[in-house]
């Protein structure tokens, strides 16, 4: 069984960017799994989008780091914004 290298690199890049977000912010609260999933899926989608648009600024083989990083941060931003704007707890 072989895995596509873009999946593995997207996981590594997503974990890196999620860790960087937590380092900058100080904590992620209970949202860390959501932020991590958003960063990984964003990195994977960013690589595919960079392939379609032909963005080849910095890449490792066929994996486009710049496009993957940008979309990973967009995913982190969207998930953090939805978590802040969403309901905070149960009402009485």
Task: Give the gist of this structure.
By secondary structure, this protein is mainly alpha-helical. Helices cover 70% and strands 4% of the residues. The chain is built from three helices and two strands.
Helical stretch tally: 3
Give the overall average pLDDT.
Answer: 87
Q: What amount of the residues lies in strands?
A: under 5%
**Low-pLDDT ranges:** none
Helical amount: 55-70%
- The domain tally reads 1
Order of helices and strands: HHEEH
Number of strands: 2
Which strand order does the major sheet show?
1-2
3D shape: elongated
Computed CA radius of gyration, to the nearest angstrom: 15 Å
The termini sit apart by 52 Å
Report on the biggest sheet: 2 strands, antiparallel
Helix vs. strand class: mainly alpha
Task: Describe, in plain words, how this protein is organized in 3D.
The structure is a single chain. This protein has 92 residues and is mainly alpha-helical. The chain has one domain (5-84). Helix content is 70%, strand content 4%. The chain is built from three helices and two strands, in the order ααββα. Strands 1-2 form a two-stranded antiparallel sheet. The longest helix has 22 residues, at 32-53. The mean pLDDT is 87.
